[in-house]
Design a protein that fits this description.
Number of strands: 18
Shape: elongated
Largest sheet: 5 strands, antiparallel
Helix content: 40-55%
Structural class: alpha+beta
Number of helices: 21
Strand content: 15-25%
């Protein structure tokens, strides 16, 4: 305790406060656990035996002691594991996906971004593998668990996590009876962690309060002896240093999640002026009191809602209960249940019905080996004193290469002193029962050897397929529980994506021909209500396979009647994935909106009509060309005439101009002659003067 005192020095007041702070809640939770663990302990006993049978540990300790005393072999031919692996393999090969379809007026189309975000959520954490492990638990022991959450230690913005939980660590409401425990009001997880890790989780709590030893005592956990006095004291031997670090002393911690009804008021919203509007919203009691001081007649109805609370319990409740990040009305821990024992109210898997046939088969194998070993050489009828050495005779009689010495005359005479015992025969019908024991597992489970893949016979593929499908019909309740689980787990993912992961991180969307990254924002995954659809797998175990088998025999007869409209009606009944069927229907609708291509007869008539039209157009073109040529000839003739007229006019103008020039020249000449005469007259007059 010295190291505890040194670690907790200066915090005694805080530790004392924690010790008595949650006393009433501790008593209530421990009382619930005491009620629930009675049924859970009974289930755990059967579940551990189921896991042992699956692993090949199929002999009880009492039977092993008897066989060891009789020196008989303990034979185990494990037929349970292949059966379980076949069922789990069917789930792995037929995995499904979750789609989110918003509830809006108009066509129902899946939200591409949100659906891709769900696929990204599952890819980041390997959810398919974790869910397959949980389904394997359900097949073996009747219950498989997963936890869907955000890890803020790995990523400060929240890293998606889907992890498988150990069913033997879980406890549940003893009054829950519905598949997947959908009506449970509380769940428990009893974990074991190193003391140092739990001390980091609750640094202000006294060390002796961290260990929940009462949980192991109430659960009658047979895996490890437990000292209640040491659990109450929980002294510091586990905190000693070893090899430079804490030793691996484990501390038990119980986590409880339960529902509480919380009251609230529902009324209209208030505008900026403080007046009621038509949009409803939620109010607490203090808000209603404040509003009614100003609006005494404010309409508000008192209602209740489920709120999940979480508490960690050691010797007592270690901290103030909080609320995990889960949608309303859900725990975040989701369960896949198997078959239900309606008398005891417990769930069980496929292994339970195989135990007695497997034990029977193992005992027959052990008996056969014992008989074969003990009858390899029969016993002897011997008179005393027939052997030289009785011990040497006992050791060498069963060895074919050894000598066994008898006294002289022991074998001679009419009555020899040594005589072999008659060899014991197998009882009548022994091998019939032996064969029946091997086939009993298939008979009690209803799962045929064709389903497991161990039948080696020549038979038609259709017959083998039908036998496999009949086995899947027997497993329909298991796969239906898995489908219900996927819907609930998809709801948890939807809540986390909408409220905590819509921070702009990139999400890959796979298209028909390429992939693209889009930011995950509040606008792209708006907080509207969504329908969660679990898409069918290509070979899912449902009635579609049977209907499709019937349709295959009918399709050749309906070949002449098969139109695109009828084909679209047939597609939903095929084993094709629902998403692929939706794509085909969408393509068909788009094709129907486009003009229909003509038939060959219509194409031939259209071509003949087009040819006639082209011939008529050619004739019209020829006529128009001839008319154009005639018109051009007429126009050319007119142009020639105009040219000739213009030439004549030009010639006439030229002649006129020439005549005028001649007349001007003559006039000019006459004027010159007149001037010359006048000048001559002037000279004559001057001369006369």
């Amino acid at each position: 305790m010295a190291e505890y005192d040194s670690d907790s020095a200066g915090s005694n007041a805080e530790e004392a406060k924690v010790r008595g702070q949650y006393g009433d809640l501790t008593l209530k939770l421990k009382g619930w656990y005491k009620e629930d663990i009675k049924k859970v302990s009974e289930w755990r006993k059967q579940a551990r035996e189921d896991y042992e049978f699956y692993s090949g540990e199929q002999w009880s300790q009492e039977d092993m002691n008897v066989l060891r005393d009789q020196r008989r072999p303990a034979m185990v031919f494990n037929r349970v594991a292949p059966l379980v692996n076949a069922v789990v393999g069917s789930e792995i090969n037929n995995r499904r996906e979750v789609q989110y379809i918003p509830r809006e007026v108009g066509d129902a189309q899946a939200n591409e971004v949100l659906t891709s975000a769900g696929e990204w959520f599952r890819d980041q954490t390997g959810a398919e593998d974790e869910e397959s492990d949980a389904f394997e638990d359900a097949v073996i022991c009747g219950m498989g668990w997963t936890d869907t959450r955000l890890d803020f230690e790995e990523d400060p913005d929240g890293a998606p996590k889907v992890t498988r939980l150990d069913p033997l660590r879980m406890a549940w409401d003893c009054t829950a009876v519905k598949p997947n425990l959908e009506d449970a009001q509380r769940l428990w997880y009893v974990d074991e962690k190193p003391y140092s890790e739990i001390k980091e989780m609750f640094p202000g709590v006294a060390p002796e309060l961290l260990h929940a030893g009462w949980a192991k005592i109430l659960g009658n956990d047979p895996t490890e002896p437990h000292d209640q006095d040491e659990a109450d004291k929980y002294t510091g031997t586990q905190n000693e240093y070893a090899d430079g670090g804490y030793s691996k002393k484990m501390c038990t911690l119980v986590e409880c999640r339960w529902f509480e009804k919380v009251p609230y008021f529902r009324g209209p919203s208030l505008d900026q002026m403080g007046m009621p509007t038509g949009e409803p919203r939620e109010y607490n009691e203090q808000q209603i009191k404040l509003i009614r001081t100003k609006l005494p007649d404010f309409p508000a109805v008192r209602q209740y809602k489920k709120v999940v609370k979480r508490a960690f319990i050691g010797a007592e409740v270690l901290a103030e209960p909080d609320q995990p990040l889960v949608p309303p009305g859900m725990f975040g821990w989701e369960c896949v249940t198997g078959y239900r024992d309606k008398m005891k109210g417990l769930f069980y898997g496929v292994v339970r019905t195989t135990k007695d046939p497997q034990r029977w088969s193992n005992k027959f194998f052990s008996q056969v080996m014992f008989l074969l070993n003990s009858q390899s050489k029969g016993g002897l009828l011997v008179e005393r004193g027939a052997f030289d050495d009785d011990r040497q005779a006992e050791e060498s009689w069963a060895k074919t290469e050894a000598f066994t010495y008898l006294k002289n005359g022991a074998l001679s005479g009419a009555n020899p002193r040594v005589k072999e015992k008659p060899t014991a025969q197998f009882p009548a019908g022994f091998f019939t029962l032996f064969q029946e024991s091997k086939e009993a597992i298939s008979q009690v489970t209803g799962l045929s050897p064709e389903f497991v893949g161990t039948r080696e016979v020549d038979q038609a593929g259709v017959l083998e397929y039908q036998r496999r499908q009949s086995s899947l019909n027997l497993l329909a309740s298991l796969f239906n529980s898995l489908r219900r689980y996927r819907k609930r787990q998809g709801k948890v993912m939807l809540y986390l994506i909408q409220n905590y992961l819509s921070d702009g991180r990139l999400v890959r969307i796979l298209g028909d021909d390429k992939a693209q990254y889009v930011p995950l924002t509040k606008d792209s995954v708006s907080n509207v209500q969504y329908d969660i659809i679990v898409d069918d797998a290509p070979t899912s175990p449902n009635e579609k396979e049977k209907v499709w088998g019937i349709l295959q025999t009918m399709l050749p007869m309906l070949k002449d009647l098969m139109t695109p409209e009828i084909l679209m009606e047939v597609l939903p009944y095929t084993p094709l994935p629902a998403s692929f069927v939706d794509k085909l229907k969408k393509k068909a609708q788009e094709a129907a909106a486009q003009p229909k291509p003509p038939s060959p007869e219509e194409q031939k008539m259209a071509m003949e009509q087009q040819k006639a039209e082209m011939e008529m157009v050619g004739k019209q073109a020829d006529l128009q060309m001839k008319q154009a040529e005639n018109q051009m000839d007429i126009e050319m003739k007119g142009i020639d005439l105009m040219i000739k007229q213009q030439e004549a006019q030009l010639d006439a103008a030229i002649a006129t101009q020439k005549a005028q020039a001649d007349m001007s020249r003559i006039a000019m000449q006459e004027r010159q002659n007149a001037i010359k005469q006048q000048n001559a007259n002037s000279r004559r007059a001057s001369a006369a003067d």
